[in-house]
Amino acid sequence: MINPRHTWPLVIAATLTCAACVSTPNAPPGANPAAPTALESSPAVPAAVPPVLPTGAEPVNLNPADFSADITNAYWPMKPGTRWVYRGVAPGEPPEDIVIVATTVTKKLANGITARVVRDTARSKGQLVEDTMDYYAQDKAGNLWYMGEQTAEYENGKVSSRAGSWEAGKDGAMPGIMLPALPKDGQQYRQEYKKGEAEDNGEVLATSTLVQVKTGSYKNSVVTMDTSNLEKNVVEYKFYAPAVGPLLALDISGGATREELVKIEQAGPLAGTGPIGKPNP
After folding, report:
1. How far is CA 132 from CA 152, 181, 272, 273, in A?
2. pTM (2 decimals)?
3. Residue whose C-alpha is closest to residue 81's, from 52, 101, 107, 66
């Protein structure tokens, strides 16, 4: 894990280089654009002492009765039918169009918890690059848990890899936190754990930033740093806005790779519900 005091200047530099604006709470005031109807009822950002969250290979004993597939986390509310559209840009590579859909589908997992299926699809030049079904659930405190994924990478229209797929409760895999209910600067947590295959971690760097992307300016956004025990040199920063969700992702480990929110909208009831390789976004 990299000390956030050393990495925060890199976030600013990378973001400015990529022509996005990220500033501290002392920056000139900005207004969040109106959220789509699907997000208007999202709860206010809470203010309280955050709970202790799991880290590393720490076991957790979760009661399925304490979880819901109805995601209302203040920093990523997932009302079914909401679609986020991103533009991904990497040096020397063609741009990617990334679509995330909170589907109308739920899945009962091996650990007994019923999760929301969230479809994440990437295309380049119209061709499928990666297709993933992510599984999320929320506990009674409002923490957003990552429960697993079924993923496939594609080359020339054919599956090239399914590495990284896992499900909480299977083969020793354990869930982790995607977003705390009550983010606090310096808060650390695991995002997923399957030994040797899925060992990602998260850390909250800031909770009151102003972030500007193509869809507008967003105040009181949370900034996290994602790392992996399996890829020590990989560092990614993610920015989340209240009542909206992910705004921007910056991978600074290999250049100025970025994914920026360009549109958020309502999708049809079947969006994202197709089989792997045919997402129907």
Report:
1. 6, 24, 10, 11
2. 0.83
3. 101
Contact between 187 and 203 under an 8 Å Cβ cutoff? The reply is: yes
Q: Cα separation of 264 and 258, whole Å?
A: 18
Helix (H, G, I), strand (E, B) or coil at 61: coil
Count the alpha carbons within 13 Å of 262 in the hemisphere toward its beta carbon. 11
In tens, the pLDDT along 60-105 reads: 999 999 999 999 999 999 999 999 999 999 988 999 999 999 999 9
Q: Cα 182 vs. chain centroid, distance in angstroms?
A: 16
Residues near 163 by beta carbon (within 8 Å), at least 6 away in sequence? 151, 153, 197
Give whole-number Cα distances, 218 to 18, 20, 145, 207, 208, in Å.
17, 12, 24, 12, 10
Q: Where are the domains of the chain?
A: 4-266
